[in-house]
From TrEMBL:
Protein name: Ribonuclease HII
Binding site for a divalent metal cation: 77-78, 169
Catalytic activity: Endonucleolytic cleavage to 5'-phosphomonoester
InterPro entries given in the database record: RNase_HII, RNase_HII/HIII, RNase_HII/HIII_dom, RNaseH-like_sf, RNaseH_sf
Keyword Nuclease in annotation: yes
EC number per UniProt: 3.1.26.4
Pfam families: RNase_HII
Cofactor section: Mg(2+); Mn(2+)
Organism: Enterococcus entomosocium
Family classification: Belongs to the RNase HII family.
Length: 254
């Protein structure tokens, strides 16, 4: 007697599934529903293979550092250079050598749902995670580039484990730890990609909290960037305490 399609689906898409003999049985099953499930399963396998290949490609810089004797490699990235309001946030992430988190990529290339999922997985698997937050007032005082560097240094200090090598997205910082600056590093290194995701989710959550205090600018949706809603809020209500006063068009409302 043939198994119900619902039962086949549950078995086929169980993450622990590994039964070649069962697959052969399904290939001989002429029911259209079963064949559709097999097509979907095949697409899933191809997708997983591509993610695996991408992950291995993004391990290149970590593997080079491991081969040179480094045990703890930290990826660093920041988010929030462009917004008109809110802090700039940086993250530093040290992943274990034998770690695998498929789907890591530049946080901007991921959906909010995927970022949230990876945020939790990174937190659970990382050797250490550090966060650096630099306020709008400090951004106005020292400029956004220096504030981004400062946030990275704070994230590095916040790590519970001192790294022996740094991979940094398109920047260098003052430190005695050997470092590599990688252009578009959040799409080329798993450690930087992980830092990108941690920083992005952390900052987005901060801006949602700020929205509860300053509800006129849409911070829960735009994270402080200059969207239409944000600009309309500025025009109608002026600036709030977390606006960056040196940024246009904020400074016209001073």
């Amino acid at each position: 007697m043939k198994q119900p399609i619902k039962t086949i689906k549950e078995r086929l898409f169980d993450p622990t599934f590994n039964d070649p003999a069962f697959l052969q049985e399904l290939l001989a099953d002429e029911r259209a529903g079963v064949q559709k499930l097999l097509q979907r399963y095949e697409k899933q396998l191809v997708k997983q293979q591509l993610l695996q290949e991408k992950y291995e490609e993004m391990m290149r810089f970590e593997n080079e550092a491991f081969q040179q004797g480094a045990r703890f490699i930290a990826g660093l990235d920041e988010v929030g250079r462009g917004p008109l309001a809110g802090p700039v946030v940086s993250a530093a992430v040290i992943l274990p050598k034998e770690c695998q988190i498929l789907g890591l990529n530049d946080s901007k290339q991921l959906s909010a749902k995927k970022r949230e999922e990876l945020f939790i997985e990174i937190q659970n698997k990382a050797v250490a995670v550090g966060i650096g937050v630099v306020s709008p007032e400090e951004i106005d005082r020292i400029n956004i580039y220096q504030a981004s560097r400062l946030a990275m240094k704070e994230a590095l200090i916040d790590l519970a484990v001192k790294p022996e090598h740094l991979l940094i997205d398109a920047m260098t910082i003052e430190t005695d730890i050997p470092q590599q600056s990688l252009i578009k590093g959040d799409a080329r290194s798993i450690s930087i990609a992980a830092a990108s995701i941690i920083a992005k989710v952390y900052r987005d959550n901060l801006m949602k909290d700020f929205h509860d205090v300053y509800p006129f600018y849409g911070f829960d949706q735009n994270a402080g960037y200059g969207t239409k809603v944000h600009l309309e809020g500025l025009a109608a209500h002026g600036i709030c305490p977390i606006h960056r006063k040196t940024f246009a068009p904020v400074k016209q409302y001073l």
